[in-house]
Amino acid sequence: MTPAATDTMTSERRNRRTGWIVTGVVFTMLGLSFAAAPLYDLFCRTTGYGGTPMVARQAAKTIGNKLYSVRFDVGVASGLNWRFEAEQPSIEVKPGQVATMRYTVRNLGAAESTGIASFNVVPEITGGYFNKLECFCFTEQTLKAGESREETVVFFLDPEIETDKTMTHVDTITLSYTFHTAKTANKPIAANQGSDGKTVQ
Predict the structure, then answer these.
(1) Given a cut of 70, is residue 194 above it in pLDDT?
(2) Could you give the number of structural domains in the chain?
(3) 36 and 76, same structural domain?
(4) Among 5, 19, 114, 129, whose CB has the most other CB atoms within 10 angstroms?
């Protein structure tokens, strides 16, 4: 075999090896991209990061003194012909006090449709102190044409919000819900228990 032929074979092997390495890197990055979103979502639900409210298993044992105004913001994403309303625009609560807000959602379209609600709180730093005992988030809702349904959110503010020095400037919290068109018929997301004994949904 001539030196030129040997060099050609060596070059081909090197190119094949490089191709396999590049392919492996691409598939690895693709897998990580799919895993990143669920992991980030779980992190937010566990810590309250990004304004994600916590989901508590039981009410607080103490009631605070400071009054907080909790506003209820609602919206419907484009493509979903629904009307979504909160019973009241806002209420005042003390930390630890369990409060209930009722919402009404109605399908204004001429055909059955399915929506799913996402949520967050503002300011985002209050996410770890906003505890929900009951909510309709992340559960697909199917409404027939003209059908309406009442949904309920039961919540309380963690009493520790009063003693957190980084929260002294906060006296108003906005809970926002937005209904989007559901893309798949998923089951409700299972609750996971955090390290502090609370569950995150």
Answers:
(1) no
(2) 2
(3) no
(4) 129
- Claim to verify: residue 26 and residue 69 sit in the same structural domain: no
Taking the model in full, what pTM does it have? 0.65
Closest CA to 101 of 90, 116, 115, 114: 90
Residue 194, in any domain of the structure? no
**Beta-sheet strand order (sheet of 113-122):** 90-93, 68-76, 172-181, 113-122, 141-143
Which region among 142-146, 160-164, 181-185 has the lowest average model confidence (pLDDT)? 181-185
Each residue of 49-95: pLDDT tens digit? 344 566 677 888 999 999 999 999 999 999 999 999 999 999 999 99
Residue 167 belongs to domain spanning: 50-185
Query: Which CA distances in Å does 197 have to 56, 181, 192?
Result: 8, 33, 10
Distances 60 to 20, 44, 100 between C-alpha atoms, Å: 56, 21, 15
